[in-house]
Amino acid sequence: MFRNKAFSLLKLIPLMSGQSNVAYKFIHPAIASPGHRCHRSVEHRQRYTMCPDSAGGRPISAPQTKVMAEEELPGVLILDIGGTHGVLENLAALLKKHFHLITMKEFLENKKEMSKKIQSVFVFECRPAIDRELLESLPNLKVIGNSGVGVDHLDLKMISNFGVKVTNTPHAVADSTADIGMTLMLASARRLVEGCQIAISPDTRYFAVDWLGVEVTRATLGIIGMGSIGYKVAQRARAFNMRILYHNRNRRRKEEEKAVGAHYCEKMEDLLQQSDFVMLVVNLTPETHKLIGKKELGLMKPTATLINISRGAVIDQDALVEALRNKVIRAAALDVTYPEPLPRDHPLLKLNNIIISPHIGTATVQAIHMMAEEAIANMLAVLNGQPIPSEVFPK
Q1: Which residues contact 301 (CB under 8 A, 6 or more apart)?
Q2: What's the mean per-residue pLDDT of the chain?
Q3: One of 98, 359, 373, 391 is an active-site residue; which one?
Q4: Taking burial as the number of CB atoms within 10 A of a residue's CB, which of 72, 93, 148, 253 is the most buried?
Q5: Known catalytic residue: 58?
Q6: Is residue 369 annotated as part of the catalytic site, yes or no?
Q7: Cβ atoms 220, 169 nearer than 8 A
Q8: Which of 106, 118, 98, 117 lies closest to 80 in space, CA to CA?
């Protein structure tokens, strides 16, 4: 219901003079149809402003107008199109329907003219970097639309001081990130990566009968961070008949807990001591930096697995190396590290009881498309002076 309300706001965005109607183009796919790396897997604090007329997702029509020429569209700054770090071409095509795209190269080559046109910045994979120098050179900038949930790469307070709003895309990332959490848990439990290596190795002559994994079904899962992603993890875990514990700044409502069979642990230590699998789904803040260190790892069962789909810096990686080497815990499965990628000689890469994936929590065709749609809706809402579905505020 909450998602429906947030996305029904897209139908309310009035059009800039002469702009094509976005009311039907950017309805979130989760509503419209049935059933890379810095922005993945973390949830950030936000405030949502709802329009009472949108309750229940009732369609509200917007007047049809003529499509504007590209030069008349509001300018959006992007790093580049294509290449190693640029916006994917299909996403650029999506942006072009509503914005005049200006690459960083074009901006730097003609700052005087381009700076006046740029009203928004589309941040894709943490790029372009937003610093004071850039903000000072964009007098008409109104919004920075981040593609993804995590905004720890953005100085929210500094940006706010320039009168610029920041938005993110929490709705688009939740399912895909929850999926990668379950994927890592299952792969680690059943030693899938090791098994694949054995199966394809030219040295393999037989499969050892004592090569065993552990069960996920009926095991205890401890979720640290029960926002929308954490809750979707719980929904999936319930299908495995898992006992679900969670620790969060704020306790979920009783009916929400009951719906997934989750039990609240006021103290994180209690969750760590009881869980067979511990999954980190928190946003990176000064409070959560190295949230899991030597002490916390020592509280976990020696048979437990630590899974991280939030941010690499949430774990003290030196302490994790020691814990894995000394069998303090059974295994770890990480979609995020610090830095990314790790140096090729990092000790975590030499261990056989760890799985590391290249921050692919939202790396699906569907998720990146939905993130772009949500970011576009957010930016247009700001430029049109309308309620912003997903604005992020500095603390």
Answers
A1: 273, 275, 276, 329, 330
A2: 87
A3: 359
A4: 148
A5: no
A6: no
A7: no
A8: 106
